[in-house]
Amino acid sequence: MFIHCPPVNIRELSTENFNNKRYYVTPEGKFPSITSVLGSFPNPELLEWRKRVGELEANRVSKLASSRGTKMHDLCERYLKNEQITNKTTSYDAYCSFIGIQPYLNNINNIHYLECPLYSKQLKVAGRCDGIAEYNKVLSVIDFKSSKREKQEEHIFDYFLQATFYGLSYYELTNIMIKQIVIIIAVDDGQSQVFIKPIKNYIKPLCNKIKFYICSIRE
């Protein structure tokens, strides 16, 4: 049984879409989502893949991956809420992804929040974090990802920036310091992965990207 801590007071946030980008409606105004911010920068590998397979195939694969990822996230959340998970409650591929990362989920406890809406008045960005909880007894920002193949660390730098944003925002809203980020990746063709990193390593590059993004949309 996973232990859930009494939650601090964090209000729910609604979202709006504008120019194919998600914005969160916060008490401080409408802020772009951290995924929209990071996704606005060129990704040469992704562009090359889309060029190689063609737009129709790339869109088909992306849609399937997004659907599976959403279902896997749901299973992770339900499991951490102490619900029983079986292969009869979801699609086969999502269930396999869940089983692949279940050993890592078992390292989580003393859960502060699941699906936590966060925003930063200072950075003027918002988002939704998969979890704030202890991982191996260290309070962490925890994000769940899915992938066709195993990831190299240099290819998931934005995952670390995204999780760092959640940690900074959580501190800004609650005054609770988080020093560690944990990225758990369910992998189809290979072993599922976990990356554990200190937040302090990614604060500067995160702030630089956000600053560049905000300056670009004001031009």
Describe the structure.
With 219 residues, the chain is an alpha+beta fold. It has six helices and eight strands, in the order βββααααβββαββα. Strands 4-5-6-7-8 form a five-stranded mixed sheet. Helix 3 packs across helix 4. The longest helix has 26 residues, at 55-80. The N and C termini lie far apart (51 Å). 30% of the residues are buried. The model has no long low-confidence stretch (mean pLDDT 89).
In short:
This protein has six helices and eight strands; from the N terminus they run βββααααβββαββα.
Q: What's the order of the H and E elements?
A: EEEHHHHEEEHEEH
Across the major sheet, the strand order is 4-5-6-7-8
Shape estimate: globular
Q: What fraction strand?
A: 25-35%
Tally of individual helices: 6
Q: What would the average pLDDT be, to the nearest integer?
A: 89
Q: What structural category do the secondary elements indicate?
A: alpha+beta
Helix fraction?
Answer: 40-55%
Distance between the termini: 51 Å
Give the tally of β-strands.
Answer: 8
Largest sheet: 5 strands, mixed
Instruction: Report Rg.
Output: 17 Å
